[in-house]
């Protein structure tokens, strides 16, 4: 399938912390970017698969990614700026 995300964590795994959540968000960015690239060369996929994958990419980039950006700006940026580390500020 064009749009498949890694399965959820099993019950026996430790709970996610803030770092895990951030990594998960960035994994989704990579996932939907890769899905968009697959759509550009989707040979052998049905029209429904293409439509569903395209809708999920659009939904991610129009709804979820802006929320993720806002979260980072509101909760992380001030903390990172407070570190005063030139490498962090440059990044």
What is the distance, rounded to the nearest whole angstrom, between the alpha carbons of the first and last residues? 35 Å
The number of helical elements comes to: 3
Radius of gyration: 17 Å
The amount of beta strand, in percent, is: under 5%
* Class by SSE composition: mainly alpha
Overall, the morphology is elongated
In total, the number of strands is 0
N-to-C series of helices and strands: HHH
Give a nutshell description of this structure.
This protein has helices at 18-40, 47-83, 86-90. The protein has 91 residues and is mainly alpha-helical. α1 (18-40) runs antiparallel to α2.
Kindly describe this structure.
Helices cover 71% and strands 0% of the residues. The chain has 91 residues and is an all-alpha fold. Helix 1 (18-40) runs antiparallel to helix 2 (47-83). It has three helices and no strands.
Can you tag this structure with a few keywords?
single chain; 91 residues; mainly alpha; 0% strand
List the SSEs and their pairings.
Layout (H helix, E strand, L loop, with lengths): L17 H23 L6 H37 L2 H5 L1
């Amino acid at each position: 399938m064009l749009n498949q995300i890694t399965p959820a964590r099993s019950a026996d795994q430790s709970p996610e912390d803030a770092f895990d959540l951030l990594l998960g968000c960035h994994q989704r960015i990579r996932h939907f970017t890769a899905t968009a690239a697959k759509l550009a060369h989707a040979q052998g996929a049905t029209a429904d698969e293409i439509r569903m994958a395209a809708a999920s990419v659009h939904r991610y980039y129009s709804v979820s990614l802006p929320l993720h950006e806002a979260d980072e700006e509101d909760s992380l940026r001030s903390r990172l700026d407070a570190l005063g580390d030139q490498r962090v500020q440059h990044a």
